[in-house]
Structure formats: C-alpha cells, structure tokens
Fold each of these.
Amino acid sequence: MRTQVGIIGAGPAGLLLSHLLHLRGIESVVLESRSYDYITSRIRAGLMEQNTVDLLNEVGLAKNLNKVALPHDGVQFTFDGVLRRINMQELIGRRVTIYGQQLIVKDMADIRERVGGEILYEAEATQISNLESKPSITFIHSGQEQTLECDFVAGCDGFHGLSRPSVPGNLRKDFDRVYPFGWLGLLISAVPPSEELVYCHSPTGFALFSMRSEEVTRAYLQVRPNESLENWSEDRIWSELRGRLGQHDGLSLVEGEILQKVITPMRSWVSEPMQYGNLYLAGDSAHIVPPTGAKGMNLAIADVCVLSRGLIDFYQNNNWHYLNSYSETCLRRVWRAEHFSWWMTTMLHRFYDANPFDHKRQIAELHTVFDSDAGSRLVAENYAGLPLEPWQP
Ligand code: FAS
Ligand code: PHB
C-alpha cells in the first residue's frame, strides 16, 4: 500500500488531520488498532474550547454538534463555603461547549467514510521504519502483516502508542509530573446539579460536576492514587458527591443510576521534540495533561492545525518552513496548557500530605483568583482556550 501521509490512530488528532488534508486534496490512510464501535463509544473528554468549535464549523464537521451540543457562557467554582461564577462570555466574549469526545470522533469517522477516506480499523501499527527518508509503517490487519509506504507519518496514536518511542531515545527529552491522586469518573442518569460545570474544592477532596446532556451527569471525584473501584460503594459515592458539592443556592444534587465508573490516574507529561525526520507527533502521543483544565482533546486539535498547515504548504508550494518549525510552534501552546492544567489541579485538589499551612494557603489562593476580575479573566482566557494556528497556509 502507498499514500502521501500515513496516520497512526483514529482519535480526535488522527481523524481531524485526515479530514483537513482531504480538504486540500492530500491523500492519507488512517491505521486504527481498535474497532469503529470501540472508538465511537469510548467515553472520554467532554469540553470543547471556543476555537475548537469555530474550527469544526469552518471545516464542515459541526453539523451534529450544532444540533445537540451544550454551549456554556460561564463556569462555577465552590470553595471555603462560597460559590463563584466566571462569566466568560461577559469577560472575554468567548464560551465553552459540552460535546462528548465519542460524538466528534464518530462525526469525523463517518464523514471520512462518506467521502471515501481510507480508515483501516483493527489495524495495529507495529513498526515505523526509514523515518529519515521514505518512511513505511508495518501493521497487522486481518491477521496479515502489511506495509504502508508514505512520504510522512503522523503519530496520532496516544500516550501508549508506538510513535513517540520511535523517536531515538538519545534525541528525546521527557518531562513528567505524576499527581498523588486520581479521578473516579462517573456517568449518572440524573439531571446535573447545574446547567454549567461546577468545580468543587472541599476538605475531603475535589469534585467536578459536568454533563453529557440535560439528563446525564458526568461527575468526577478525587481519589487516592491506585484506588480500587471495590472501595467505592454507591452509598460512599453519593455521600462524597453531596459532601463535596456542599449547600449552595441554585445547585441541587439529584440521585440516579450510576451507568459507568472508571478510575484514571493523573499526570502531566511532555515529550520533546514532537518531530523526528518525517515523523510528526500530535496529541496524546506527545503530551498528557491532568483533565482539570479540560485541555487534552483541545490540545490534540491545536497540534493538528499546525501539522496540517505544514503538510499543505509542502505539497502545494514545496515549502518546508512550517514542517521544520512544527515542534517549536506546538510546544509554545502545549506548555501554556500544561501550566494551566497544573495550576487548576494544584489549586483545586487536596494534597494528602499537605500541612495546615498549605490548606490555608490554598484557600487564600482560591480567593485571590476567584474574588478578583483579573484572576477570573486569567482563568477564563485559558479555560475558553488560546488562539489556534491557521490549519492551512
Ligand atoms: P487518542 O488516545 O484519543 O487516540 C489515539 C488512537 O490511536 C486510539 O484510538 C488508539 O486505539 C490508537 N492507537 C494506539 N496505538 C496504536 C497502534 N499501534 N496502531 C494503531 N492505532 C493505535 N481530555 C479532556 O480534555 N477531558 C477529559 O475529561 C478527558 N478524560 C479522559 C479519560 C480517559 C480514560 C483518557 C484515556 C483520556 C481522557 N482525556 C480527557 C484525554 C483525551 O481526551 C485525549 O486528550 C484525547 O483523546 C487525545 O486525542 P488523540 O491525541 O487523538 O489520542
Ligand atoms: C468532562 O465533561 O468530561 C470534563 C469537563 C471538564 C473537565 C474535565 C472533564 O475539566
């Protein structure tokens, strides 16, 4: 098999890149190790930045999103017995939108299929070769080992993929921060406590109340690291959700059936550089953020805009400039998102080894940020998202 751009991974990064290249007549093949049903039903990210939604509208990927997504002007925070709301629309003229990652993945996969895009499901890439000349990807599909020859490889295969390890270890620098807690993610058949997201700092730990629709709550509870689900009975879950939300006008916790519960660890991670030879890493293959800042999926989309512009400029104008500066361009925004995600995480979570001074200092930091317009504006600008690079030259 041969194509212009070999894309490993059909997550938000891989599928968006395949679509953008198609819009400018550039061929690609997407290799995805899982099935279509798996990737279009996996519950993961939920919040989109304004720039992400604008981009999806610009490139014809927002038809279903515009029908069912939930746009929010504001976001709420509870701490130290108070409830604070940041009105992003009023402060900076931008908002955020709730639209489950599995939905945008389905939208992109279906649109690619409709226009004849080549996505091979249950096709696991096992090796990338000749990265400094004409690369090839070896993969297993239908029990057969096959090879995809290409000009470029886009490593969109997430944190556990093989793209990042294909960058020689002596050329790669990894930056890592593991947090001393995880999140218990819950999908609950119940009306959310508020129409907007509520981030809660409490003496027994962090909680987040998001949603997937007006009748389905997506909630998260901070848990100890390496926690097991067996320790979280339904009674304990409801007791902690209620306790961490607290009593505030306008917020009411409605109980309902818990449809799913999963524990995920929390870490910050960046691997530099994000390119080697004709391999370009985009999304979780190059970086991970704690989900407190809701940056993971948005950052993957931001990387793809930079890579798409570089590839289009190469094929249309034989210009290498944007490809040569790909890693440097992406990392400026990646590190801003890493900082914001770290800041929101350390401000809002309880550190189990913190002493009384640390607890009081943390409360003071929350008041410093959320009692002031300047602090609220800073949170709003980063939460609603920084500008994206153009996706085409
Ligand atoms: P993805 O991981 O989405 O996609 C990579 C794809 O590559 C996968 O489909 C995988 O099957 C495939 N793949 C891997 N190895 C392969 C190989 N060898 N061959 C072929 N295919 C291969 N972000 C948020 O903003 N908010 C959240 O609440 C949130 N919750 C999350 C919960 C979980 C459990 C996880 C794991 C992540 C969560 N994230 C969240 C982060 C997540 O949304 C990512 O940022 C986003 O999926 C990144 O997209 P991609 O870079 O496309 O990687
Ligand atoms: C979600 O809806 O899954 C979500 C929203 C905001 C976050 C994390 C997760 O910060």
Amino acid sequence: MEPMTRTVPHLSILLLLLMALVACNATGTGDPAASKIDVRPFGATADGTAANLFVLRNGRGTEAHLTEFGATLVSMNVADRGGERADVVLGFDDVSGYESDANQYFGSTVGRVANRVAGGRFTLEGRTYQLATNNDPNHLHGGDRGYSHRMWRAEPHPSLASVTFRLTSEDGDEGYPGRVDATVTYTLTEADELIIEYSATADQPTPVNLTHHSYFNLAGAGSASVLGHELQVNADRYTPADETLIPTGAIESVAGTPLDFRAPELIGARIGELDDTSALGYDHNYAVRSRALKGGPGAVMAAGPVAVLSDPSSGRTLELFTDQPGLQFYSGNFLKGAKGKGGAPYAHRSACCLETQGYPDAINEPGFPSVLLMPGEEYRQFTVHRFLVD
Ligand code: BGC
C-alpha cells in the first residue's frame, strides 16, 4: 500500500496556530510576523551524514531547537517569571552526543514501540516475533537502534515555526513486522505551546507506540535536582509492574500511594516511600483521565492538562496535554552525571520525563488499550507542551 504523505501540518494544527496568532494580537504580547526558523549546522554522524539544527522562534523570543537525528528536541528556551530565559531540556551540543552511549533518549522521538515489551516477544496472527532485549530481559524504546537513533528527513515550514520529520521503517526493522511510514511535526505557537503531532501507516499489522522523551528541569538543564519541582498528574489509576518494570496487567488506584499526584506535590516529598524496585524512583505508567480524544490539538487542550510540572524557584510551569491513554512519569533515576550541553553534568534525578504513550507491554496485555496498527488505518497522536510562568 502506498503510504499517506503530507507536506504541510494537519489542518487542525493550522487552526490552532491561527487562534494563537489572533490571541496574541488581541493582547499585544507577540509579533506573529517574527515567527521563523533558522537552520544551523549540528555536526555529522559517524558515517559522515551532516545534521541540522532547526531553530523555531516565536514573537516572544521563545525557541525550540530540533534536529533530524531521532527527530529530537535539542533545546527549549523559555522565560522565567522575571523574563530570564533558560534551556529547560537535557541534550547535547551536537549530533555526536546523540549517537553516543551517553544518550538516554534525550528529547528524542521513541519508536516503533516506546517503553517495554516483556522478553522482547509478542505473537501476532499466529507468528511470534523476537525483538532485541536491550533492557535485559526486556525490549526497551524500539531496540538497539530505534527511531530515536535514526536520521529522519526534515521538512521545515518556516512561516509557521514548524518542522515535519519523516522516517521509513522497513519490514523487519529491529525485528518488527511490516513497513511503517511515520511523521512527527513540531510546531511552536505564539502562545509558547510546542505541539507535537504524530502519524504513521503500516503495510502489515504491527504495534506502533510513539512518544517524546524530553528530560525537563524547569530551573534550567544541568541544575542539580528535580525533586523540588511540583507535579500534578490527573490520573486516578496506574499500571503496577514487576521488578523488571513489566506491568502485571492490573490497573490500580493511586489513592494512598506515593504515586498519587492528583493534588500538586513536590516530586521529592514521597519518592523515598516507593516500594524498593529496580526503578530507583518514579518510573510508572499512569492511566490518565478522559483520553481517546478525536479532533486534534484543540480538543486535546480543551480536555485539560494530564500533567502540570512547575518549578517554584523560577516560576516556570509546563502543562502537558495529550490524547494518549498512558503517561510514563520517570524521575531521571538512571542519569549518572554524564556531561551534556555546555559540559553540564546530568546527575541522578536532575530532570524528569513525562512521556505520553500507550501502556507498556500493551501488545501482550489484551486488557490494555491496543497499540496495534492495521494496514489502511492511520496512527495519530497529538501532544502539546504549554510553557507558562506563575
Ligand atoms: C523509562 C526508564 C528508562 C529510560 C531510559 C524511560 O522512558 O521509563 O525506565 O530507564 O526511559 O532513558
């Protein structure tokens, strides 16, 4: 089947952008005409392929920096309550860092299946597939060289401060069945929203579960700890997991556990009360409320945020909106001090990830929302990161 291709962002994104531009003009807080993209060199991969850095900028001076390697968000420069800008996501100064072992999926687009697949194995239509067990004994984030470690093709849309990245994942890629044609479009609005729109088609039944893997520290990437950030997660339930972080299949209430973030709470307040698992901190999938939304980013935002992260010291706040059923909250437990942008060490728990996705191991759990993509269907996902100050 010929894959569906698209050369401009989805209509609903254009509508949302238009709304944001109108809102900006009404309040006089931005100059829409200033929105644009600069393209800068970002080094070359080991095989000599040049990478670019796409700098999206809005009229407020907020910037999102993206590269084709892993369709990755490299930097997100946002103001604090005094107008001071900082880069609030972890990453590297050029593409070689992203190719290195120090790259723990910083800012990347993860696929074909984000999160874990038990034993790296699943059965589809009577055939069993064995994937790489790169997170022994399980498969993690698409395998040895998943979508996060591939060169996507970039199509910038400069007048919209938007870039589309495209990837063809061939039949058998990392052991998965069928060819997948995936796109991810990042759009920076005048209202400091980073909209991420995903789409994918397949020529055989195959699991598809894409996510965005930014590590946030709203005090600035390289700041010592994220334990003083406040978090709210609008989820009543989560999927308990075994010691290798594979869900047991149960979906349980967060009430009375350190996972209950229904009211805002400091990340560090109860992290020590978590059961002693190999996760070493928060690394849990929430079953978020009111999902399975159709209708693009407008509908997703109208449903309210699934999570709100804020840094009391800077006043920077991140609201996260999605149509996905799952949210993996990971408190950066496996960061070990490797040096990132500007030589800053990224210490244990110095940043956290809020990954919108299907549930872990959903391909092996009939009781979980399906992550199976069939030929003729289109996988769609909208996730919006809105940056504010309190
Ligand atoms: C997972 C962690 C994993 C990390 C890798 C997160 O999405 O939940 O368990 O260690 O990615 O960087």
